[in-house]
Amino acid sequence: MGPIDPTTGHAACEAPSEVRWPCSCYDASMLHELKIAARTLLRARSFSLAVVLTLALAIGATTSVFSVLRGVLLAPLPFPNPDALVHFGNSFKGSPPGWSISPVEYRTNYATLRSFAGVGAWASAGANLTTPTEPIHVSLGLATASLLPTLGIHPAIGRWFLREEETEGADRKLVLGDALWRSRFGSDPGVMGRTVEVDGNPYLVVGVLPPDLELPERFDAWAPLALPPAMYAESSRTNHFLRVIGRLGAGMTLTRARRELASASAQVDADHPEAYPAEARFALAAEPLHESMVGDIRDMLWMLFAAVLLVLGMACVNAGNLLVARSTTRQRELAVRAALGAGRAALVRHTLLEVLLLALAAGAAGMVLSRFGVDLIVGLGPRDLLRERAVHLDTFVLGFALLATLSSAAFFGIAPAVAAARTDLQSALRTVSSSAAPRARRLRRALVVTGVALALVLLAGASVLLRSFSKVVHVDPGFEPRGAVTLRIALPASGSETSSVGGLPSSGSVTSSDRARYDLFYQRALQALRDQPGAVAAGAIDFLPMSNTTDRYFDIEGRPTPPGADRFDEQIRRASPGYFAAIGMRVLHGRAIDETDRPGAPGAVVVNEAFARKYFGGDAIGHRITLDPKAGWSTIVGVVNDVREMGLDTDVPPIMYFPFAQDPRSTMTIVLRSRNPEGAAMKEALAALSGLDPTLPAFAVRPLRELVSSSLEERRFALALTQAFALIALAFAAIGLYGVLAYNVASRTREIGVRMALGARPAGVLGLVARESASVVGLGIVLGGAGAAVATRAISGLLYGVSPLDPLALGLAAGALVIVCMVATIVPARRATRIDPAIALQSE
Hints:
The chain is an alpha+beta fold. It has 22 helices and 21 strands. Helix 7 (about 290-330) runs antiparallel to helix 12 (about 440-475).
């Protein structure tokens, strides 16, 4: 046994230094130091609690955001070898691919690719399903038999479709989604082999899918994609509505597959110049399936993760500041330890053990908070947040939380460790003053400057996003959302056409009797709604603004398409009489669609301002256009105001509104404008439609204003979280500044007392503290301003109507930070002015 170690109270180990770590004496010494560190922290409960809570909040927030980031962006798709799955699309003029493909292209161009072991397709549809409780409208996926084999999965119960069941006229089959099976069929396995009614036709239930089927679209149930032969005719080559995926063959890479796609594209161009003019630069394209699913939300989630990492950095800065302050007050204790034989390494080790214990406690508390944080973020997130099923706390997230904890410990433990290592032992033993050493004071000031700079970066980002959001919400949508409600109706087709299920794009298979029936039903439905008490107007359209898009080629009379040029191609809608009044649009020239626009009457069309400007210089009335020259021409009878069809933050596209009665559709959205409250108006509308046909369910029933609100979900989500992080950062900056100023006032009590005894006035003392605050905050704002310029440029893709360096936004951020820091300065400054010189001079 060696001499007693004054730092631990144990006998010092006599083993050589190179073998000390495995020595049992050393192990016992480390355990003893841990116990001492724990007891020391328990005695300083207020300090320990402040550090743990600060770090726990930041670690919990960081882990929550990372959990969402991992689930949505980083976690692989739940399929075998998911990296081999690709999403096919058509690219024109080098633009990003559009994900809609025609059945002809699927069968002749994509399904024949040699680089892929499997190719599958589906179309989105909808249908009315008769369940054991009530008829409901379900989203229906129409899929090829090759879809699930391509994904590499199997139904949870039963089977998937067979190739021969894709034939039009074959016995109808249905595979239920897990959610529909549980909610409407009570998770009953006996549903297998049962016949259910879909749009009035019998479908045999043959399977139930697993709950983790992830595709770019979600469906309640699936049926075979049984299309009529007309949809595979070359004349339908540009009828795009299929989504197509493929699985790379063994040993095949996406790069090699893209070379085959390029070769196939050249062949398609050569074989079908009428469908793909040379100027269109048509190309078959493929992207990893995961990339195509998360592309729209990727930038936003990375921005939020960067923001929360800044919050974690600020928490570390504040924790480090507290530890430096505490180490300053313990200088005499550390000096005594050193005088009794403890080396600087032992002092640093003791400090780091305290840091580690604090970090582990904060990490454990942060993990508890993150469980609630994940639910909160998912609840606040967009309704269609992809892959939310994969967002949960798993071992990978726990590993990240541990890494964040240890990284935080290393980050905020550096400053106190440096302070402990640089303790001037002789000075500390001689000094009876409590004044802080200049070196420690400079270190604390540097930490506060860092905190202020980080806070400004976050505040600038939040301020720019807020300005952008304010610009977006004040954009005129072109219609009046208040006072109107909407609902959708999907009429089943009569006859045996499988393709009519869900209202797939027309291929000529919809019979004239169906068209007449659709027209008659919507006439009766709209009249029933107009007869309701309080009704102002009612109308119908195939796609509301901000809900869906569909475009068509068209020709202008007297303006033939030049050889080699693209045909005119713009957005198209089908609207009923009363629609423009119901949604709150204005007829600027001519007239709206009215009751005279019937089948057999001269073709009519209404266009928006953007269309009139682009093609006719604003004077469009009387000109004629056609979607198909063989079907006749339609005269432009009216011009209506522009509507933000694609969203408030996108440009207005040219739009053609054709009369619904001249081209009826099975599925339409009805808009009812009423003087009654929204809730009452929706109930009245549902009751009126139920009186027409109680077996026909209405769906997507909601106030029209929710249409605008839902279009802003992603922006609102990003803004809410960024503002929350910015407020936390602002609080951390204020607390850090207050702590430094309060401590400096306390440590300079004798100096301030001497100044006041020599005649200094309270205003002068106040200025002394204010100047110190101003120097710290000013330097932080300068450094933070540079960081803010970089950060706001990085999020420029999320902004609308404002520059990343918007002076007002950056000025507001800096001003808010200055105001909060001024408030944090007031208390220690007032305390300094109230120091009694006599008591101050006697205190030391």
